[in-house]
Every structure is written in C-alpha cells, then in structure tokens.
Amino acid sequence: MTGTRVRLSAGRIAWRTVASRSGHDGTSYEAAFDPAEARHVRVCGLKPDGPGQKGGQMSIAELEVYEK
C-alpha cells in the first residue's frame, strides 16, 4: 500500500509534515490542513511500488497552493 506526505519549509532546510496518509489504496483523496506559512511545498510519495500497489507508478492529478 502507498503512503503520502505533504511537507512545508521556509527555506528548504527544515521541513515539517502538515499532512500524511499511510496504507492508502491509490484512489483519489484530498490532503487538507490548516493554513501555514511556507515558501516551499514538497509532496512525497512513499512506497509507490510496494506490495499490493496497483500499477508501478504514482501521480499527482491536481495540486493547489494559495498565497495569503
């Protein structure tokens, strides 16, 4: 099964995880979190080829980032 993590950083040195999901079956979902100040956004796909994963790839269909 797949896992994902959304991380934020002010300067690409210290990253903090603001949303995560593990044991995911690969269907679409929304990773929402409280507003946070950041300059950089990192979306991490974990174990895209793990046992039970349908297919051998992961993709992001839509990503929205809003400026305050």
Please tell me about this protein's structure:
The protein has 68 residues and is mainly β. It has a domain of 45 residues. The protein is 0% helix and 37% strand. The chain contains no helices and three strands. It has a three-stranded antiparallel β-sheet, with no helix packed on it.
Question: What are the SSEs and their pairings?
Answer:
Layout lengths: L1 E8 L5 E10 L15 E7 L22
Main β-sheet: number of strands, strand sense, barrel status? Answer: 3 strands, antiparallel
What is the total tally of β strands? 3
The residue ranges in which pLDDT falls below 50 over 5 or more consecutive positions are none
Distance between the termini: 35 Å
Mean pLDDT: 83
Q: Helices and strands, in N-to-C order?
A: EEE
Strand line-up in the sheet with most strands: 2-1-3
Give the fraction of residues assigned to helices.
Answer: under 10%
Question: What value does the Rg take, in angstroms?
Answer: 13 Å
Class from secondary-structure proportions:
mainly beta
Q: What is the general shape?
A: elongated
Determine the number of helices (DSSP H or I, runs of at least 4 residues). 0
What percent of residues are in strands?
35-45%
